[in-house]
Amino acid sequence: MSRDICILSVILKERFDTFRFLKLNPLVYITGLVSLFTDLSSQMIVPLLPLFLVSVLHSQIGNVGLIEGFAASIASVLKLFSGWISDRIGNRKWLMVAGYGISNIVKPFFAVSSSWEQVFILRFVERIGKGVRGAPRDALIADAINTTERGKAFGFHRAMDTFGGAVGPFLAFIILLIHPGGYRTVFWFSVIPGIIAIFVILAFLKEPQKPKSEKSRKSLPKITFRGLDDRLVRFTLIATLFAIGNSSDAFLILRAQNVGIAIALIPLMYFVFNITYSLASVPIGSLSDRIGRRSVLIGGYVIFGLIYLGFGGAHKGIWIWLLFIVYGLYYAATEGVQKAYIGDLAREGQRGTAMGAFNALTGLAALPASIVPGYLWQAFGATVAFGYSTIIALTAAFFMMVLRA
After folding, report:
1. Closest to 289 (Cα-Cα) out of 145, 393, 138
2. What is the pTM assigned to this prediction?
């Protein structure tokens, strides 16, 4: 009998080891949970915001691109400063608290906005919060995880974040079924998970304190690429080129409405996209640990180019649904993997600055990335706008293959 128990224990241990990807630093779980509730809140708003702007506030499509472009840019530029500051002061948690707090406190005001200019200001302030928290959080995760599991850790974080991003649109879908056209009602309900996110980070996140040596104080990084690895600089420039063609997801939502998909179903479509993204993030992140980040990123850039080509030519709702599913694979192959790649290329003590510099440049590129397609759509139609993004994405993939960052 005891022999059978020993055999059973060995079998169970082997099975447990098979799922060892679940054994991560507790800090990764806590940051993932905070991101889950924050993204749940945000994604109740984001899929509906372009529809709210165009249908309720009667804004032009070009203004939608302007709002999203400036919002993405300010978030990314602030990541440069917040990442550098977190390296400088040796504390990342309170920058994260400030960032998550700003993003979640501003959300109720979307429900009472009455013009696209007001939405512009609110979206701008909400993205300031994202800019303050992003680089310190990513650097905190990179510091806590060794390079052999960093892709998996960032994949898990993206999976948690994106699971919240899936639940948010689903709840919005339910509210719109009960209250058709109730955009403002959805915005009010988004406040609840935002409050939970702030509580979780305040109550449960314990940042490990590592004493800094005198040497580390003298070698604190400046807000520059000077001193950073050449491979990191090359990769950042290629990613910035890609970002110039990576227009806001708002255009995908407007395209779905453009081909005749009912407004109430668009949050459900976003739910399907986020579920795909969430389920694929950990496996693809782990794949990048095994075969290399570069190969996975090239695949992600190519997938993006083909998806946007599809959006430009699609004229039936079924194709939009399928493209949104594959779009989740693109996100899984790039978002977490890029962060893990930067964590690999940047030295300890410089990761906050490296994350910030990367996000600042790619974020500045987000401004033309959203403004140009918006006005191309207004002037020449959706096919030209999406074709612009396809060409740039495939060019970036080519440079990744040639330059071997």
Report:
1. 145
2. 0.70
> Cα separation of 403 and 405, whole Å?
6
Domains in the chain, start-ordered, CATH in brackets? Answer: 27-206+224-403 (1.20.1250.20)
What is the per-residue pLDDT across 346-391, written as a single tens digit (0 to 9) for each? 777 677 677 777 877 887 888 888 888 888 988 898 899 999 999 9
Element (H, E) at 58: none
Determine contact, residues 325/273, Cβ cutoff 8 Å. Answer: yes
Q: Report helix, strand and coil shares of the chain as percent, to nearest 5.
A: 85, 0, 15
**Does residue 220 surpass a pLDDT of 60?**
no
Q: What are the φ and ψ backbone dihedral angles of 222, each rounded to 5 degrees?
A: -95, 170
Count helices and strands (H / E) in the chain. 17, 0
What does the pLDDT look like over 265-289, one tens digit per residue? 888 888 888 888 878 888 888 888 8
Q: Fill in the amino acid letter for 403.
A: L
Alpha-carbon separation of residue 402 from 304, 360, 369, 395 (angstroms): 19, 24, 24, 11
